[in-house]
Design brief:
Blueprint lengths: L2 H29 L9 H22 L2 H32 L11
C-alpha cells in the first residue's frame, strides 16, 4: 500500500467519522428552547457549500464514489443543522412576539 493510498484511507475515514459527529450537534439544536441563537448559520452554510463542492469535485474530477458520498453526507448534515436552527428561530420568534388580546374587563 502506497503513501497515497494511506492518505486517501485516512481522509475518507476521518470524514466518515465526522458524519457521525454531527449527531450531538443536531440533537442539541433540536432540543434548544432559546431559538438556537448560539448557532452561526453563516458558518454552517459555508460548510454546506464547502462539502457540497468537494463532493461535486470528487464525483466529476476524481470519479471517487466513496469520497463523493462522504462529502455529500457531510453537506447534508450541515444543511440539517441550518434547517433545524432556522425552524427553532422561527418558532422562538413566534412564541415571544405573539399578539396579546386586550383586557376587556370592566374597572
Amino acid at each position: 500500500m502506497s503513501a497515497d493510498d494511506l492518505i486517501v484511507i485516512a481522509y475518507s475515514a476521518s470524514n466518515a467519522l465526522r458524519v457521525a459527529s454531527y449527531a450531538p450537534q443536531l440533537w442539541c439544536v433540536a432540543r434548544d428552547r432559546s431559538g438556537a441563537q448560539a448557532i452561526s448559520c453563516l458558518s454552517w452554510n459555508l460548510w454546506v457549500a464547502a462539502n457540497a463542492t468537494t463532493a461535486l469535485y470528487a464525483w466529476t474530477q476524481l470519479h471517487d464514489v466513496l469520497l463523493t458520498v462522504v462529502n455529500a453526507a457531510n453537506a447534508a448534515c450541515c444543511a440539517g443543522v441550518v434547517l433545524i436552527t432556522l425552524a427553532k428561530r422561527s418558532a422562538h420568534t413566534r412564541a415571544t412576539t405573539a399578539p396579546t388580546l386586550p383586557d376587556w374587563r370592566l374597572p
